[in-house]
Design brief:
With about 260 residues, this protein is an alpha+beta fold. It has two helices and 13 strands; from the N terminus they run αβαββββββββββββ. The longest helix is centred in the N-terminal third of the chain and has 47 residues.
């Protein structure tokens, strides 16, 4: 009896030990799963916020030449990076809808409650900083020369990331000191109806919308830019396949070395 009792105790101890090992394995697996889910959620949240528009200036342009950017005309809070507000679930519109004038009876226009209203599209260039609508991005900023040298700067509006081919149907209106140009991607089928609708110029390349070479940028000079981005509903590529797609753009500036003169 005594021998059998010892055997039973040892057997029970082994079972308890196995259960403990199994519990450790289960806890480890659950922890790994939770960690994976947390990482996935973080990535999903980042992607959903990818509609943010940014303006970037090469740090040396500020440190060496006194060039800066700001969302305010008086250059208050001048900096080297500006960040707009992200837009989630942007739906297609057309350029006229951006006016959002409730007094307009023309069926070509549309009213979105809560959005800014404008009498003319040029008025969108007269608002400082971030002034998005529900279904479009709008950002106005300034670049100024507070240094002592005349410089030449280069700027490009870059497409940083694209999902589901959403860039095929976007339009980007760029105001430079009050003059607007509307850009769109080179159509897949140039002969399709509305393929070139609302386009003044095509994107420079697959990842660059437009660029600017500003010569003779003197001390005290200041340039104003407004960027407006929307998904053009008349574009033949504005189809169900791009639902849930994303486009992330940024405007990037730098002073061109060797292109400066002292005043």
């Amino acid at each position: 009896m005594e021998t059998g009792g010892k055997y039973e105790v040892r057997s029970e101890a082994k079972r308890v030990n196995r259960r403990r090992q199994m519990m450790r394995i289960v806890i480890l697996v659950i922890s790994c799963i939770l960690l994976l889910l947390t990482a996935t959620f973080a990535c999903a949240s980042f992607i959903n916020k990818a509609g943010r528009f940014t303006v970037n200036l090469d740090p040396e342009s500020l440190n060496k030449y006194g060039i800066s950017i700001s969302s305010k005309e008086n250059m208050e809070d001048a900096t080297i990076i500006l960040r707009g507000t992200a837009i989630e679930n942007m739906t297609n519109i057309t350029k006229n809808f951006i006016l959002n004038n409730p007094q307009t009876k023309d069926e070509r226009f549309f009213y979105e409650k809560g959005d800014p209203t404008y009498k003319d599209f040029a008025d969108i260039d007269k608002v400082s900083g971030d002034h998005n609508g529900k279904n479009y991005i709008a950002y106005t900023f300034w670049i100024a020369n507070s240094g002592s040298e005349t410089v030449k700067y280069y700027g490009s509006l870059d497409i940083n990331s694209v999902a589901k081919g959403a860039d095929e149907a976007i339009r980007v209106s760029v105001f430079q000191n009050g003059v607007a140009t509307d850009y769109g991607k080179v159509p897949k089928n140039p002969n399709a109806q509305y393929a070139k609708f609302g386009i003044d110029k095509f994107f420079l390349s697959g990842d660059v919308v437009m660029d600017v070479n500003r010569n003779d940028f003197k001390p005290g000079d200041k340039d104003r830019y407004t960027i407006v981005i929307w998904l053009e509903g008349w574009d033949p590529e504005c189809v169900d396949n791009i639902k849930g797609g994303e486009v992330k753009l940024s405007m990037n500036f730098k002073v061109l070395e060797g292109e400066t003169t002292t005043s």
